[in-house]
Amino acid sequence: MNLSMLKADKTVKQQLTPSAKKRKNKETFEAYLYLLPSLIIFAVFTFFPAFFSMVVSTFRWNLPGKAMFIGLENYIYLFTDAIEAPIFWKSLGNTFYFAVGVPINLIISLMLALLLNRKIRGVGIFRTAFFLPTITSTAAISVVWLWLFHPAQYGLFNSILISLGIPIQSWLRDPLLAMPCLIAMGIWSGMGYNIIIFLAGLQSIPSTYYEAAKIDGANTFSLFRFITWPLLGPTMFYVLTVGIINSLKAFTEIDVMTQGGPLNATNTTAYYLYQNAFQFFQMGKASAIAVLLFLLMLLLTWIQFRFVDRSVHYE
Amino acid sequence: MSSLTMADAALKRKRVARKRLVNGAQNGVWLLVVCALAFAVMLPFIWMIVTSLKSPTEVFAYPPTWIPKEFQWSNYVEMWNEAPFGRYFMNSAIVAICVTVGQLTSCVLAAFAFARMDFKGKNTMFMIFLSTTMISSQVTLVPTYLVMRTLNWIDSYQALIVPFLANAFGVFMLRQSFRTIPKELEEAAKLDGCSRFRFLWQILIPLSKPILASQALFAFMGNWNSYQWPLIITNQDSMRTLQIGLRYFVSGEGSTQWGIYMAAALVVTLPVIVIYFLVQKTFVESMASTGLKDI
After folding, report:
1. Chain A residue closest to B161 (CA)?
2. Any bridge partners for residue A69, and if so which?
3. Residue A62 lies in domain
4. Does A147 contact B258 at a Cβ distance shorter than 8 Å?
């Protein structure tokens, strides 16, 4: 996304005659009428909840009971309580562990995009094949992978292990393997989107650059190293940050496949939030987690905007 | 002289032939590699389809079979009896269609104001719209649930539809498209006595059909696949959407009937895949420019 597109047009300041002023006022009124439906929805379902989230985070509010103001106790509790803090820290750690899939995904997707960036008949079929997991619902994908990761010997992955002479694994039920399993599935399902973005990026590089370099005797590797890599830089950074922000939100696959288990091995902050709110019904504590998660995402978004801004100037 | 040119021509022909051969070999290797990778990526889908056609005993057979001994089509009938998938399907369709229509309407109106009108506070308003994209659904989850609880909207269609009736990404995309339509057209229409709203309705919208189609698709897909909010806001079986129905179906009690589960997973996925194949091109383009999958 180009940052300059994000700015609305500059209104030209000028002296207006009374009739023009009246017309402008009328236009302003009309414009707000057009904005009204969206504004109402945003006010009620985005801005108010975001604000209310901060308010609720300062209450002890266990449904169906009444709310009680406790100040910052929820936050202190999350970071210092003997039972709570280790789980919360673990969930933060898991969140970043899960995000490890994003750079791996980026590398794999880039290689596949380079492979698919050819003008050959039938290449579209392959693009579709890689893209299919991206449009499939995460719930359905998770159910399918739950079956692939079945811990018995008839589970597909285990049957492959047996044929290779490796002992069978319990995959999602193994605290050490559960997270890598989720990451693997995430890479598989997220690849298609990255490939589409990379292909768009690759096709925007003028072919004259490559032709000129070829005349100068550049080999395939230096073509990649000195043309593709730097020119694709901003795209890669975009994919990386958006990917990380999305991975912080991951919920569906965890809920369907592991419910945060085994032994909290896949309990990420987003899932921990859900557990607190809708399994333990502790709205105050859940809101405190939500606020912290929000700050983390805001930080990442800020980094993204800053960097993208800079790279635009650099070009 | 002539023999020299003939030799030259022969040499040239040889070189072209060799180049073609090298290219052919390269393409062959490329095709092999890509085929293998594509197969690996499609493997979970293939396994889903294969399993969905197996009988319960064959599902648990070791070593697993790649072609079912006898095709158990009854799995696809059975799933509708095992859980109220008809009801889930209807709920998903109602919600996704209402959200798509409503979201598109609010987006078109707002995008029109941003693209074609000059008003006080325009930049501030635009920043307010954009800032909503930074507030993720996780942050608003608990308070929105509390609001729904106060409104007594839990287990209702309103709760599944209303929060999604505005979308800043959609406004942004449509604004970009509306801006490309020449100002002269609007002025000409105005001279002919066309009101602003009529200009939007009769000229701008028909001219923006492709982008509207992709936005509609995007809204539909996002909503059809959405999981967390429907999970939280519905308790009764009769209000569940397909995705949630699938989840409870699979994690339910009783013996694990993977054949039926896989049939159900396929049915849940199918509408979006069908739509995808119908409008592949616009779909991929809109995906590349907006970029969110689930809500």
Report:
1. A41
2. A59
3. 15-75
4. yes
